[in-house]
Design goal:
Elements (H helix, E strand, L loop, with lengths): L4 E4 L5 E4 L7 E8 L13 H8 L10 H7 L3 E6 L4 E8 L3 H14 L4 H20 L3
Antiparallel strand pairs: 1-2, 3-5, 4-5
Helix pairs in contact: 1-4
């Protein structure tokens, strides 16, 4: 059994904390209860597109991936029918920075036409590669 503590913040956000002292790393995993099931069947792909937009930067952090890499970490995300998940893994002394990065992109995401066009292209190419190109 994994031992964890559960905290529900005043804004409704549920925080699960599991401490593991055998590693010098920390991982922040953020799950949103939204996925492909929430889309209109005639207009699919928005959940996946939004997942990509979350890496497009903000006015405070224009290049999310570069900051994570410079801190010695990695990040990624995935979308399925039921949820969208983002994670950042960093050296343990960067936990506050991981929370700051997640908070910043939740509040100040760059949703400019340029960012949208770039990510639409990426998601479309992924779709063609993964689904339309299968033997």
């Amino acid at each position: 059994m994994i031992n964890y503590t559960r905290h529900i913040l005043s804004n409704g956000l549920t925080l699960l904390v599991m401490e593991e002292s055998s590693t010098p790393l920390v991982s922040v995993n953020t799950l949103f209860s939204v996925g492909a099931r929430d889309e209109n069947p005639s207009r699919t792909g928005f959940a996946h597109l939004f997942e990509h937009l979350m890496f497009g930067g903000t006015r405070n952090v224009p290049n999310f991936d570069r900051v994570v890499t410079e801190l010695g970490g990695e990040s990624n995300a995935n979308t399925n029918n039921d949820f969208t998940q983002y994670y950042i893994t960093l050296p343990a002394n960067s936990l506050e920075e991981a929370f700051r990065l997640e908070s910043d992109r939740m509040q100040h995401l760059d949703l400019s036409p340029k960012s949208l066009a770039v990510q639409q292209s990426v998601v479309t190419e992924e779709y063609h590669f993964r689904y339309m190109n299968r033997p």
